Amino acid sequence: MPELPEVETFKKYFDGTSLNQQIERVEVSDDKIIRNLNGDEFINKLTGRTFLDSYRRGKYLFARLDNDEYLLFHFGMTGDLNYYELDVDRTKYERFVFYFTNHQRLGFDCPRKFARINYVENLEAYIAKVGLGPDALEISWTEFLAATKNKKGTFKGFLLNQKILAGVGNLYADEVCYQTRIHPASQVGAIPTKKLKAAFEAMKDILNTAIQRSAYYKEYPENWFWEWRKEGTKSPDGKVEVAWEKIGGRTTYFFPKYQRLYTLKN
DNA sequence: TGTGATGTTGAATG
DNA sequence: GCATTCAACATCAC
């Protein structure tokens, strides 16, 4: 689930449920995903604290505490938040849970344990250390264009590179390429500026549309990846069938010929 | 039963 | 230094 629109949806859920309530108790059932603290340290750091607000950058959600330090949620592939009151609503994959003073709880679920939780004392220093680029919804056209200069890598790899711009994942990257008819293996430096501009705008539009629909894919436009990104689908002009390859290290669906491959000379 | 999965990281390679 | 590829992470679902 969690690419930028999904994480933005988690942010809204978190903000709407878990702010301004004191954490009375913390329970850790598996501290594997907590990267820089063990279970007991995590419990000690969070007990008695209150979340005041949150900040999302790309796929990273930073929850600010009342001591001005942060708890970072990175959802990996299968992370999820679960706000509930009764035991019956606790899930099988809950890894830790905050019990608030209002008798509600916020559980963090993660079947695959690829999520990463970090206790962050200094937000700016942390972001700098990770090398996280500007948020995909915040990056300006000028910055975006500048980042493409002298790049020989694939366009798909460019979109997925969180150090260049943060938030685009595998599915949305494919959608940007598809809507703008750019072959995902195109070399970044070979794509005309006009095409890059179209991709930049498509990216913003796609992410915003997804956010408006709360990243709930069943409500996405009918011609989006949920429909075309599967075996046997025909391109809009009816001429080719969808193909897939590993590009930028990820399984990538695209329509050969329909999406133009730009390559640098020699 | 084997395979791949919406993500990141670090090592190895070119 | 840069780009790319691959394995690892841990588990589930098809």
What does the model show?
This protein is of the alpha+beta class and 266 residues long. It contains eight helices and ten strands. The strands form three sheets. Strands 1-6-7-5 form a four-stranded antiparallel beta sheet, with helices on one face. Helix 1 runs parallel beside helix 7 and helix 6 packs across helix 7. The two termini are 39 Å apart. The structure holds a DNA duplex (14 and 14 nucleotides).
What tags apply to this protein structure?
30% helix; 266 residues; DNA-binding; elongated; N-terminal domain of MutM-like DNA repair proteins; Helicase, Ruva Protein, domain 3; 4-stranded antiparallel sheet; alpha+beta; single chain
What's the number of extended β-strand segments?
10
Distance between the termini: 39 Å
Percent range for helical residues? 25-40%
The CATH architecture of the largest domain comes to Alpha-Beta Barrel
CATH class of the largest domain: Alpha Beta
| Number of contiguous helices | 8
Q: What best-fitting shape do the alpha-carbon axes yield? A: elongated
In CATH, what is the homologous superfamily of the largest domain?
MutM-like, N-terminal
Order of helices and strands: HEHEEEEEEEHHHHHHEE
Low-confidence stretches: none
- The rounded Rg comes to 20 Å
Largest sheet entry = 4 strands, antiparallel
Mean pLDDT: 92
CATH topology of the largest domain: N-terminal domain of MutM-like DNA repair proteins
- β-sheet strand percentage: 15-25%
Widest β-sheet, arrangement of strands: 1-6-7-5
- Secondary-structure content class: alpha+beta
Overall structural domain count? 2
